[in-house]
């Protein structure tokens, strides 16, 4: 060991080489023993759904695994240690309910998603001695609360003429996150004038009536897409939209259509209101009608639509006489008719 004039201790060259070799050995063991850690967390799920969290990795020797830990934020809620009995431990955490019977080293199953479950989930995997090499991966999870019924589309008129201005409002009931609204004119997407999350004072909902009987089930499409019917505005699925996105839209189970949980935190659901306004052109009419569609969707979890059909305004055809002719019939004709009737009546006596 060499000592400088300033009394600073400097390791000899041989010592530095040994330290470097030891560090390289430890690093290579760690990398070779635990690698390719990946996490699989769904970016969004519907409320009340079952959620599966997955964590995968490669180990040269499966027995070299020391522990797997799951966190939401900074709080641990699940731990798996193969050398302990039982292997799994669950720590209470609001919004987290672990299904132990379906959980293990590489998978954790959470029951009945609620808004309180949402957050950033972290998987921490540690190799066994001597390195205790640890790898961490994380991903966010959002819990979607869909609208309780479909969107509503309203306009102040049932017909429009060429050159007139069409203005319509589409509103979707409160949801979290707010729905995304898309407008289409005769199947072609059009620009939206404005999007807000407050209902106009004049807007009235038409929620579907709750059936008193539980024996009659709605069709699968109605159950999956929250479709309802209104006397003045027939609302049904846009088959074109569904066919284009059928691989993306994951249909929820019937049990997930209505929340069954008791809300413990704030209600963050908000409505979504979209407005379109445009001048009506001749080409907007197909067979004398104009079709305006509003589609509401949240990710690939929820989709519903509503539609209005507007007739083309037709000019009124005047009668042969015309209004003015009817109002200017000479008054002496009325007097002549009255006299004739009186004469017939007296003659009959």
UniProtKB/TrEMBL annotation:
Keyword Ubl conjugation: no
Keyword Membrane: yes
Residue intervals passing through the bilayer: 329-346
The organism's place on the tree of life at top rank: Eukaryota
Assigned keywords, A-Z: Membrane, Transmembrane, Transmembrane helix
Cleaved signal peptide residues: none
Cited PANTHER family: BEAT PROTEIN, BEATEN PATH IIIA, ISOFORM D-RELATED
The protein's name in its UniProt record: Ig-like domain-containing protein
Organism this protein belongs to: Papilio xuthus (Asian swallowtail butterfly)
